[in-house]
Structure to design on (736 residues):
């Protein structure tokens, strides 16, 4: 529809119809009248409001969305189609690894392909908008939503944000609209506690936390979702500085801003609004356009206009942004956008999509340890025993695979049974996932269901006995361990981030057998492996690896794929180190202090400063040597080239992620000890040597100076290049 026509359409809308466009309700309001009675009563709204609502939350499936759209339009006076929005974070039906795993691929081009698949599957299933990418930078593994983040680095997060938006939307929105979230800095919740306060300097906000959102907006992202947290004392959903000053004015974002779930109403709980009327006023004045899942806008907007408390233009502007989005999606011409059962059958979980998910998963897994090159294994050479709760579990897709199905997942046991003979492979569970499943009650599990999940005391004893017996005759024991799906993701903050104790106790008993030991860890966050590094020969950090995760893990175990994953988030020695991140600021008393020593330097009495595994870390089955770091000049004005030689010493091809960091030795404010600025994932043939070059531009060195201008002062810089943020070669240059 032409914009003029759209303007005319908007002018024909009544206030209830306009306000309806700013309300989002979940799919249960659109099922049968009977089913919708409860939700309407709970929210305190009537059917007339439901009939005018502009968008639907988390209802997908071509038949359902088409049916609801058809009914809605048939009964609508204004014929403005519904918008279907859903949480499709890292897969619709073909589920990819969780974003913390995607972050470990260091392969944005591959991730873009994954998000193109996600868009195609989602569109055929009737979704118009997805609440992705989630680009919240995270430095605290206690926070459950590490799962959804690509990690702790501003530069890497921005690269992923860009390709995820491009993958989802396509060139001309032929995919689905993306909604970057959660604006802003939700990942900095104090103490890693979900929904907790966020407070930081504007400099830190801009330097580290905003880069992902900005990259998404620059890539053309159509929506932004506000975050639950405060920034500088104001909840994001009513925060003029975040939404109006930065997002709208500075960045020129004129798309739709949608609140997070009930976040407008939560302004009352935050204590910045006395009631829902004040909350509504704060949110609409901050230009939050859509009210997700409360009745604030439905009940308060019209009275606020009538009482002259808000300008009607605020509502008209919000409505205009929503109508423009619907128009950009072509909904007025085709409210169904090709969603159909046939398209679903053609797209969902195709062999091609599964193959891509398997490739991405293989590149996401990080080999953390491989003592005595115990890996890769040789098929049918050693006797292998697989044990642990994830050995035959299909729950490999993580908490936020809302529309995925665990039943699509092949388990580790099934994959290994297919690959190995029965003489050389055995499985027994050996131990329970958790000691206590009662927390699942919060997710609606009944007491009976909870009781039925775990093993009884006697079952636990016999499971251990069986594992010890089989372990006696095995050569290699593979431990498939990890967090429960529900122990990470939203509202999944935890203060003990070691493997569940019941699993540790089991491993303590099994290691007595003195066999080769391989840990495969399934988790939605960095876990503390301080104990396991001494117990295990090899450790594979597999995240929640997605629908094809087990196949990918087995590809790696037997060397069909050479591991190439590199951590995008630091793994701590202990939870007491958190938040921990590689790009920390310099301090006046660094470990290397020349003026202070002993206890009077920045360190702990009971823990190292450094993480157990640093940002950028990961092993492969190849040893790659780095040498000959050279800079094109010892001085830089506009550009400088850094080159390094990398040589694969092994007889196995590999993918090597070469990372370039800088340090601004002296700034007008304190600067980080290192900052990732460039990286390249380079393929090396067996025994091959390559020279890798990076072009550093002056703009790459910019930061928020003391006066908050975004620029750089001349002076000394250090360049670090290596396979991770700690093992680096270094050189210096002078910026003129
Ligand atoms: C949740 C999450 C957000 C999600 C939204 C809709 O609370 O914070 O990421 O998109 O609600 O489900």
């Amino acid at each position: 529809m032409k914009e003029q026509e759209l303007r005319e359409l908007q002018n024909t809308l009544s206030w209830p119809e306009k306000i309806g466009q700013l309300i989002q309700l979940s799919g249960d309001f659109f099922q049968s009248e009977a089913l919708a009675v409860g939700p309407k009563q709970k929210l305190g709204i009537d059917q007339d409001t439901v009939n005018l609502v502009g968008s639907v939350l988390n209802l997908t499936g071509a038949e359902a969305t088409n049916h609801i759209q058809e009914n809605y339009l048939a009964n609508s006076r204004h014929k403005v189609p519904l918008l279907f929005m859903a949480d499709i974070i890292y897969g619709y039906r073909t589920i990819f690894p969780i974003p913390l795993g995607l972050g470990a691929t260091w392969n944005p081009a591959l991730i873009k392909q994954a998000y193109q698949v996600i868009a195609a599957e989602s569109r055929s299933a009737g979704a118009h908008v997805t609440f992705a990418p989630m680009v919240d930078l995270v430095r605290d593994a206690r926070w459950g939503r590490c799962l959804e983040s690509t990690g702790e680095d501003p530069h890497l997060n921005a690269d992923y944000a860009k390709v995820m938006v491009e993958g989802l939307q396509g060139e001309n929105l032929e995919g689905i609209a993306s909604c970057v979230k959660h604006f802003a800095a939700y990942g900095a919740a104090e103490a890693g506690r979900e929904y907790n306060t966020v407070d930081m300097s504007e400099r830190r906000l801009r330097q580290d936390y905003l880069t992902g959102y900005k990259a998404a907006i620059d890539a053309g992202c159509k929506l932004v979702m506000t975050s639950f947290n405060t920034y500088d004392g104001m909840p994001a959903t009513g925060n003029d500085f975040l939404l109006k000053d930065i997002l709208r004015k500075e960045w020129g974002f004129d798309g739709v801003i949608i609140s997070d779930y009930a976040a407008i109403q939560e302004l009352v709980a935050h204590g910045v609004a006395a009631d829902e009327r004040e909350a509504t006023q704060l949110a609409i004045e901050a230009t939050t356009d859509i009210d997700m899942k409360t009745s604030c806008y439905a009940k308060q907007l019209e009275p606020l206009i009538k009482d002259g408390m808000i300008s009607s233009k605020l509502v008209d502007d919000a409505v205009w942004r929503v109508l423009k989005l619907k128009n950009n999606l072509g909904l007025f011409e085709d409210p169904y956008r090709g969603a159909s059962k046939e398209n679903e059958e053609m797209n969902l979980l195709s062999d091609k999509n599964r193959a891509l998910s398997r490739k991405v998963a293989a590149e996401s897994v990080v080999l953390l340890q491989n003592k005595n090159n115990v890996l890769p294994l040789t098929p049918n050479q050693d006797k292998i025993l697989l044990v642990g709760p994830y050995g035959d579990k299909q729950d490999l897709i993580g908490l936020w695979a809302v529309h995925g199905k665990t039943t699509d997942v092949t388990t580790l046991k099934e994959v290994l049974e297919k690959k190995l003979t029965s003489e050389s492979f055995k499985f027994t569970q050996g131990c329970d996932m958790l000691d206590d499943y009662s927390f699942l009650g919060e997710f609606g599990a009944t007491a009976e269901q909870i009781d039925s999940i775990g093993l009884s005391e006697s079952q636990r004893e016999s499971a251990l006995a069986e594992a010890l017996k089989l372990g006696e005759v095995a050569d290699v024991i593979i431990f498939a361990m990890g967090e429960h799906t529900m122990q990470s993701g939203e509202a999944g903050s935890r203060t003990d981030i070691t493997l569940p104790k019941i699993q540790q106790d089991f491993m303590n008993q099994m290691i007595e057998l003195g066999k080769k030991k391989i840990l495969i860890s399934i988790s939605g966050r960095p876990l503390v492996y301080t104990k396991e590094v001494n117990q295990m020969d090899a450790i594979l950090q597999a995240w929640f690896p997605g629908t094809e995760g087990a196949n990918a893990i087995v590809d790696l175990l037997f060397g069909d794929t050479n591991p190439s994953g590199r951590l995008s988030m630091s793994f701590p020695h202990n939870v007491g180190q958190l938040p921990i991140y590689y790009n920390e600021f310099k301090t006046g008393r660094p470990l290397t202090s020349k003026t202070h020593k002993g206890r009077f330097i920045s360190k702990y009495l009971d823990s190292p400063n450094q993480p157990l595994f640093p940002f950028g870390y990961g092993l492969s089955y190849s040893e790659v040597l780095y040498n000959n770091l050279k800079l094109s000049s010892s001085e830089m004005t506009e550009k400088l080239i850094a080159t390094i030689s990398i040589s694969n010493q092994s007889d196995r091809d590999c993918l090597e992620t070469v990372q370039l960091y800088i340090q601004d030795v002296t700034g007008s404010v304190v600067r980080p000890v290192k900052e990732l600025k460039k990286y390249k994932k380079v393929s090396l043939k067996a025994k091959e040597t390559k020279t890798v070059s990076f072009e550093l531009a002056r703009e790459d060195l910019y930061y928020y100076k003391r006066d908050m201008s975004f620029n750089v002062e001349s002076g000394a810089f250090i360049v670090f290049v290596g396979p991770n943020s700690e093992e680096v070669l270094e050189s210096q240059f002078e910026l003129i």
Notes: The two ends are 53 Å apart (CA to CA).
